[in-house]
Amino acid sequence: MSHLFSVRQGKDFGWWTAPLAPIYLGADIARGVVRVPVVSLPQIVNDVKTLPFLEPFQSELCTAQKMISEYQEDLKNGTSSTISISMGQDKRSRSEMAISFLTYIPTLPLKWVLSPMALDMFGKNSWEMMNRSARMLFHDEKEFNSGSPHTQPSGGLHQFMSQFEKEVSREPETWEITVIGHSMGTIVMNEMIRRFNINYANIVYMAGATSVRDYEDTIFPYLETHQETEVYHLTLHPIAEIRERWWMDSIMRGSLLMWVDQFLSQPQTRLDRTVGKFTNLMSTVHDTPGMSESGQFRDLRRQIHIKAFGSGNGEIGPQKHGDFNDAAFWKPTFWAVDKESGKIPSLECLDVR
Questions:
Q1: pLDDT tens digit sequence for 123-169
Q2: Cα 222 to the chain's mean position, in Å?
């Protein structure tokens, strides 16, 4: 509601802008109505992608297949020169797929009506306000309105982390710190990593809503100077990402990250999409620095691990974006790449560029 009553272009003007709320609400509704086809078309495309025979057309899965093969070969040779990666299986049963299809058809009219409202009319601005709240953990609004100079950011989390950094610096060798971020928490986590000089043993991204670009700009420089830090990416299976259902299947299927990429944000390139989607990671993972021929850049790939959980009712692991909250995410076994299994079936990869 903040975008309706007080926040304008990143600044909180307070109560006196409230009379403009009906105008902003009208603009939200108009945008949602006009963009009905924009919302409906991706909905159909996403649903079609769940068909198994279309897998070879998904270049990201072919990239994953190649990387898993390279990782398995590294294990045999006793080396660690590639990103470790495992991917669970799509174990949806025929009955499971049939039920999913049967619930999809009757609610299709509802999806066409409610999805624009949920995503365009109200979702986009809600996402922007959530993003703002995450940023304001470091810079409080009062800091900009006080009229007096501040020696450091006054946000609550910034103050906490400043004290924590001092505490750790007293006896750094006695600390083993793991930081875990889920969804929008990864935006906050990246900011923490950039701002404070803390040595993390493990950095875990669970279905990260931060962008690939923000991840790269944060983690790559950090790993250059922290050679013992391990980075873990935990994602849903691509099929689970697409088939997540909301409100008794009354609005467009897909995880929050799919909504962010397609409707709630405005990515300019693949690097501006969310890092927590397996397909986004696979299409940009080549950006991870490996050892150059001149030795100018250090190989960061051995410190990075990617794990996609399986899909289907019989699979163990998160099936929805919110399931990560209910998992034992603090246990290293939950992050660990499966060295023995998780290899995706061989695909006859097709170049459709």
A1: 777 788 788 888 889 887 777 776 666 667 878 899 999 999 999 99
A2: 19
